[in-house]
Amino acid sequence: MKLLFEETKLGNMKLKNRFVRSATWENMATEEGLLTDPLIKIYEDLAKSDVGLIITGYANVLQEEKPNPGMMGIYSDKFVNEYQKLTNLVHEYGSKIIMQIAYGGTKTTYQTEERIIYAPSEIPERSTHTVGKAMTKEEIVIVENAFADAAKRIQEAGFDGVEIHGAHTYLINQFLSPYYNKRTDEYGGSLDNRMRFLNEIYGKIRKQVGQDFTIVIKLTSSEFFDGGLTFDDTRQICKKMEQIGVDAIEFFGLSRPLLAEPDLIKRWKEGVRKKAICLSCSKCRTNDGNYCTIFKKG
Ligand SMILES: Cc1cc2nc3c(=O)[nH]c(=O)nc-3n(C[C@H](O)[C@H](O)[C@H](O)COP(=O)(O)O)c2cc1C
Ligand code: SF4
Fold first, then answer.
1. Angle at which helices 196-209 and 231-244 pack, to 10 degrees?
2. Separation of 261 CA from ligand 2 center, angstroms?
3. Which residues are catalytically annotated?
4. What is the maximal distance between C-alpha atoms in the chain?
5. 3-state secondary structure of 133
6. Residue 95 and residue 144: Cα distance in Å, rounded?
7. Over the stretch 229-284, which tens digit does the pLDDT of each residue have?
8. What is the dihedral of CA 89, 49, 218, 38, to 10 degrees?
9. How far, in whole angstroms, is CA 112 from its chain's centroid?
10. In 3-state terms, what secondary structure has residue 214?
């Protein structure tokens, strides 16, 4: 526990401790993806309570690509001023904040009739059964550039870094997965080919933000089903990510425990070391926002 409270460095970020709030979609942004008072309060509470690094809920890089309601947006320059409020606030308390960016894809049932949803191949997603459009090379470039433009805005808004969402069956994860990626071009087949989309996104982001900006990637360790991404594949992906200069790969972080107790880290720091009260029951997603319905009312 002592080590967890020690300062550390992650990329170029100096963190006051090693506790990371992993990305948590709050379902509290406006329809456009702008901040609201309840959303700002969540980040203020986390920063106030000594969380060393806060990763925002996933933000969409293309306006039309919104896998869930109430997500933060980062698809246009109008968000730069908006998020300066948030980054200044978090920095006032000595915490660091990075923004997670994602292209959701077929792991959604949200407004699926009203938009084109991209996928590596036309394979129904296992839980939503949504089928996407197999992307052309031009569409791949559009999405890659959207990630890179979003990262530039994130840097301009004063965030300490950016996290690429490569997990949870979202689009990047689907490109990596032999189950979802059945392409026969240079983006499918071998692991090197399946990694190409992620590599290109990383390369374009790095070009936009420079060497000193922290880039983190969140990966699924294994898909845990026949024909899916295995732990061995992920080990290879991690090695490659390290070689190309990714600053960190997310293994674990704290999401639900901090919904149940936003002041958990402060409590532990002050010596009240009983374990987190969160029951891991996942009853924290509601239509009125994602909050702990057991211990903390929204
Ligand atoms: C309400 C809710 C929203 C989440 N939103 C995101 C998200 O936006 N991006 C992401 O990568 N993971 C998201 N997650 C997953 C968490 O970051 C985390 O990986 C997962 O909940 C396991 O950690 P935990 O046991 O500490 O909750 C979310 C989880 C919950 C409960
Ligand atoms: S609803 Fe359940 S899983 Fe979610 S934060 Fe509360 S106790 Fe934890």
1. 30
2. 9
3. 170
4. 56
5. strand
6. 30
7. 999 999 999 999 999 999 999 998 999 999 999 999 999 999 999 999 999 999 99
8. -60
9. 21
10. strand
Q: Would you list the domain boundaries of the chain?
A: 3-269
The mean of the pLDDT values for the chain is: 96
Query: Cβ contacts of residue 12 below 8 Å, gap of 6+?
Result: 161, 212, 213, 214, 247
Distance CA 264, CA 277 (A): 9
Round to whole Å and give the CA distance between 6 and 26.
29
Say what the pLDDT of residue 297 is. 57
Q: Which DSSP symbol is given to 56?
A: P
Flag whether pLDDT at 298 surpasses 90. no
Which ligand sits closest to the CA of 283? 2
Residue 75 CB partners (closer than 8 Å, separation 6+): 33, 60, 61, 62, 63, 146, 150
DSSP state for residue 220 in the 8-state scheme? -
State mean pLDDT over 62-90. Answer: 96
Is 264 touching ligand 2 by the criterion CB < 6 Å?
no
Q: How far, in Å, CA of 127 to CA of 46, rounded?
A: 32
- Closest ligand 2 atom to 277 CA: 7
CA 84, CA 199: separation in Å to the nearest integer? 29
23 lines ligand 1 (CB under 6 A): yes
Q: Could you tell me how far CA 21 lies from the centroid of its own chain?
A: 11
- Residue 88 identity (one-letter amino acid): N
- Please check the confidence at residue 1 and state whether its pLDDT lies above 80: no
What CATH number has the domain spanning 3-269? 3.20.20.70
